[in-house]
Amino acid sequence: MEDFEHRKVAGTYTLPVCNSAAPASLFPRGAALGPAGAAAGGAGPARRRPQEGEGRRRAAAAIMRAPPGLWRLLLAARGWGRLGAMSRYSTEQRGRPNSPDYRLYFKNADGKYISPFHDIPLFAGPKEDKEIPAKRSKTTGSEVLFNMVVEMPRWTNAKMEIATEEPLNPIKHDTKKGKLRYVANIFPHKGYIWNYGALPQTWEDPNHTDNLTGSCGDNDPIDVCEIGSKVRSSGEIVQVKVLGVLGLIDEGETDWKIIAISADDPEAQKIHDIDDVKKHKPGYLEATIDWFQFYKVPDGKPENHFAFNGEFKNKDFAVEIIKSTHEHWKALLHKKVDGGAIKCTNILVSGSPFCCSEEDARSIVQSAPAFMNGGPVSPEVDSWYFFPK
Length: 389
Hints:
Low-confidence stretches: 1-53, 59-83, 127-141
Oligomer: single chain
Distance between the termini: 54 Å
Number of strands: 17
Shape: globular
Strand content: 15-25%
Structural class: alpha+beta
Order of helices and strands: EEHHEEEEEEEEEEEEEHHEHHE
């Protein structure tokens, strides 16, 4: 098992790495512990002993052998976070939160600055560079998983998004006419009603007319509404199961909304397709339609409309949409189409003419303002809007 350590330094967040043993009280009797002296309550020697690495691995293994409910408590008590996709990425804050200059940059496990739009694989797991299977059995546990970049956590109002027109595409607080943007609270909804984000390595081409909707793409990565029980964090990378898709027509553009659930959610094993959402989370899809229909009305814009009369399409349909937007992204990154103002700077996409060096990527981040404490949140997040149904 890997060593894990958790640290937060000057706005830089790295995901858990275990570099000290857990207290003896957290482990089953007989479990091996990390540095000598920890089990006895001492601080242990300042210099690392040869057996410490093995002790840490055994301590972590003891947690993983515990019953599922217990090991989550043990990890939480120890400050060890969620294992999995997120442990491969970290984020670094620049600028001042709640201001136009705020940026959230991404690093991979090697500490290299990367683009969450281009360098994080679409496919999660060891076969992430393979073609998407058209179908997967939901009884074998082999369902294909996708990486989701969380932009807006559930119940929040700040419109955070991948900055597609900036090098390395950090997450930023979107603005309009120099003013920070927030989504309105449309009764009874508070902010975003899902963890909202995007699938990396996808692109809805604004020059391509979608045969299914008759409208061009919205020039962004494809959006994801993650319906799991946990409230996520902006910048978190979550492995998700795709369940279906809603075709939103937003100001004349095709804006697909993928419905997905985190693979580690307690209900993920019983929710495999859009009909399962209707069964196990009644009212959620109807609330989703309501949210997307009205969310721009407080800004003086008309109600949104939907393809297929607002019908949610199933998992297989959604996967085909993802495949199509992934192909458009490939064309973009290999300069086969004109991306306009889209920045394709990356460090990991093989054969891309937009690939840059690690030094160049570091310079991009360091040119952004240093991290500062955040400013006040706009009072408009406390306002509510009511519309007749």
